[in-house]
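Section 5.1 Outputs to date
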Amino acid sequence: MIKFNVSYQSGLESEYVAKAIQSGVLAGDNRFGRKAESILERLTGSKKVLLTPSCTAALEMCAIGLGIEPGDEIIMPSNTFVSTATAFVMQGAVPVFIDIRNDTLNIDEERIEAAITERTRCIVAVHYAGVSCEMDRILDIARRYNLTVVEDAAQSLMSTYNGKALGTLGDLGTISFHETKNISCGEGGAIYINNDALGNTMEVVREKGTDRSMFFRGEIDKYTWRSKGSSYLLGELSAAYLCGQLHNAELITNKRLDIWNAYHERLKVLERAGLITTPVVPDGCIHNGHLYYIVLRSDFSRERVLKGLLERGVMAVSHYVPLHTSPGGRKYGRYNENLLNTDKILPQLVRLPLYAGLTQESQDIVISSLEDLLTGRQ
């Protein structure tokens, strides 16, 4: 069976975890946690990075730290993981779903202004598949309407927009280190703090609503409860594993890009035949090879294709159920217009196996199996 995803391991991970165990200090925000944050700041250019237990936790921190209140509206795409919405819903906010572009499948920046009301507080830009949203336009809209921008860059470590790391352009950015991501520690995440005014606030949110971080730095003589918050620290064992991964971030990214590029070149035959469409990476965007997807022609059954691939030993998968069509989306969110691209494209989207250790032989099987199914070959 050709698996959809296999986490990369270099050997450093177990070495660092053993050192963390030997230290006897396993709580969060210690040696390996601070080391991982420092590496991420170097890799991304972010002013301040804080590790979190997950990208979901980082998004929740954004909602709390920005002071989101009941009735506030948050503009986001429907093509995203549920955490993008629930993080704000937990503070009483209303997700306002808008359509995606038909090329990158990212939020359609030309539809944002029409969704803005007097209750709008924030725009969440989700960088799908590690390919950037049109951030210049989004940031311009945010400035003109006095809105904050959160980048959900869960899939985007090592991706850039006009030379800047994704997650570092808005006020806040979030990243995931879930086992399905390029760089992983099983479960984990981080928040990038790009607005200086939010630095202390986000530390307080992460430390259960206290100023404990400032106490440990010697800036105050005792710490106390200040505001809303929760336990959003990543444990030292996970941070140690993450350090081992981060030391190989460029190597892992390059391996994935080689596989992504091979898919992209070889599947052009099916695209020229009108059987599929392949991903688009706009000028100015450098992606990280996070995932390779195809969109099937509208008359193909995705379920039949996925089943056919599985029968040939290939584990391919679909992706998000559009949030605006979900029970939770209908209950907690709203949308102003038909989301035509979202409704048309996502039901036909298939993700192909992609991980740093995928061999050429396995990739050959994936491609030939797909060609058999889509061209009717036996």
